[in-house]
What does this fold into?
Amino acid sequence: AQSVTQLGSHVSVSEGALVLLRCNYSSSVPPYLFWYVQYPNQGLQLLLKYTSAATLVKGINGFEAEFKKSETSFHLTKPSAHMSDAAEYFCAVSVKSGGGADGLTFGKGTHLIIQP
Amino acid sequence: DSGVTQTPKHLITATGQRVTLRCSPRSGDLSVYWYQQSLDQGLQFLIQYYNGEERAKGNILERFSAQQFPDLHSELNLSSLELGDSALYFCASSVAGRGTDTQYFGPGTRLTVL
It folds into this structure.
């Protein structure tokens, strides 16, 4: 079975600093990987996804992530944090299966705090 | 706005009761997913439907059931409710239910069981 581990339940960065949110996955078959963001009292919004094309994936709001098979990682980065980036971030994995998807398996989330 | 709608937004009920949560997918999406988000369990996949048929099951309790209707809206039925069922329930939809598809999430239904 697949799983996702997000290191750090809370990450605090200063406005303008680099954002790095870590995600490691476990899967016996090639995975599809996703990063979602959840703002307070809202649903989840897709930031970006890896579906076995380019290993460096660019998403919305200046975020990007790199798939590293050797490290089983899919860390999310943004060069310069903005106050509006404060939210909960979820890494998720979907594993190829015959005929369709089995839903997303999510990590426990990382709460990103932006210090002014 | 993802285009996925869920009703009601909030639901407060008592233990032992039964409730129905409703979801309308984005226009054109054939697949619907249900997820439960709670503080102790995190986000968990419950069940997936594709064009009216059950496609995959996750950690869905036997007291819970779902269906997808011909107009593609879906309902999640929760019965014999327990305090531990209090959670945020999300519906998501995707075009074809493939692993590579983006799942678009609704705003959720917050269920409180007293």
Observations:
- Residues 47 and 57 of chain B are 4 Å apart (CA to CA).
- Chain B has no helices and eleven strands.
